[in-house]
Each structure stands twice: as C-alpha cells, then as structure tokens.
Design brief:
Blueprint lengths: L5 H8 L9 E2 L1 H16 L4 E2 L1 H16 L8 H11 L4 H17 L6 H12 L6 E2 L1 H13 L3 E4 L2 E6 L1 H10 L4 H7 L5 H8 L9
Parallel strand pairs: 1-5, 2-3
Antiparallel strand pairs: 4-5
Length: about 200
C-alpha cells in the first residue's frame, strides 16, 4: 500500500534538496495538490490553511464526513465554502470537475489528470508555497503524528488528514479553527483516529 505522497520522496532524492521533515499519506498528498490548485486559481503565491481544508473536503469528504452527523452534509458544505472563501459558483466548478474526473476512473480518482491540466495552465510559474501559518501547522502535526518512517537513520513522521485536521482544531487562535470546532464535529473521535497507530477505516 502506497502511504506516502510522491513529492516528499522525490524531494529527498534530489542531492540539492533539504531532507524532508515529513511525508504525507496518499489522500493527504492529493488533498495538498488540490489545495495548491485552489491557491493558483486565485493567483495566490501561498497555500493557506483554508486551501488545505478545501482540498481535504474535495478529495476526501467521504472519509472526513464521519466526524459530523450524517444529516449535516449540506450545512457543513456551506460552512466550508465560507471558511475557505470560495464563491458558490467556484466551489461548484471544483466539485463538478473533480467528480467528473473521479467517475471516469474510480480506481485512481483521476487526480493525476486534473493535475496535468493544472500544470499545463500554470506554465512556467513557480508553484504556490505553504503559508507561514500552514507551515507551522504541519510542524505541529509532525510532533503528534503516531505513524513514521525511517530514512538515513532518522525518523520521518507520516502525516494523515486526520492528524492535520486535529491540529487545525486545536489551534484556536484562528477563525477557521474556531468555526470548525463549533461546527458540531465529533472532536473526541477525530482525536482518537488521529493519534492511533492504525489508520481510520474508509467508510
């Protein structure tokens, strides 16, 4: 099972690159790629926490929806639209684009096809980088991540969507964290899954 985002592994293999401080599970890697696409679509040079939350929703709502009541879907979607500062029209565009590609190839979720379109449209522009807030959040996730790999004799934390989402919830100094915490999310269950050495099962 491929747990790791390929970007982390490729970065480590470049002789001029700094050692990666973490790796991403496949679902979080794809959510991160979608977050970068969202940032690029609004001509931003940085990926914000809100972009990553939107990416996690777009790629893995079926996985994350377990932390809300089953009949809360429409309310949570509306909340996420507002938190992530995406207009309903733009939100629907991303949902429809991703769903169309996912239906065309259920096995791979067709994310690489969307990424190829994104890379073609982006041209030679440098990809957006994580904001300071997002970088700090990922550092926090490294500290609590229960899963890890080893490379060159050192431990490399493996970040999951649940682990990162828990750090967002715990960081009450931001509006997005406070609104998520007040959304009716089952935080105890999220915490249990995020800190477990076994990944939460897919629904």
């Amino acid at each position: 099972m491929d747990l790791f985002g390929r970007n982390a592994a490729q970065t480590e293999n470049r002789p001029d690159a700094a050692p990666a401080s973490h790796r991403l599970t496949l679902d979080l890697s794809r959510a991160s790629a979608l977050a970068a696409m969202l940032a690029h679509s609004r001509a931003s040079q940085t990926v914000e926490v809100a972009d990553l939350v939107a990416g996690m929703y777009l790629y893995g709502w079926e996985r994350l929806s377990r932390y809300w009541e089953s009949d809360d879907g429409e309310r949570i979607e509306d909340l996420l639209q507002k938190m992530c500062r995406i207009s309903p029209q733009r939100w629907n565009y991303w949902i429809q684009l991703y769903d169309k590609n996912r239906r065309s190839n259920e096995q791979t979720a067709s994310l690489p096809r969307i990424l190829r379109r994104f890379q073609k449209n982006a041209g030679s522009e440098p990809p957006p980088k994580p904001s300071e807030e997002l970088t700090s959040l990922l550092k926090q996730a490294e500290e609590i991540a229960p899963l890890s790999d080893t490379s060159g004799g050192r431990r490399i934390p493996i970040l999951t969507s649940e682990c990162v989402l828990l750090c967002i919830i715990r960081n009450r100094g931001t509006e997005i964290s406070r609104r998520l915490a007040a959304s009716g999310m089952n935080v105890p269950q999220l915490e249990k899954d995020a800190l477990s050495t076994r990944r939460a099962p897919r629904p």
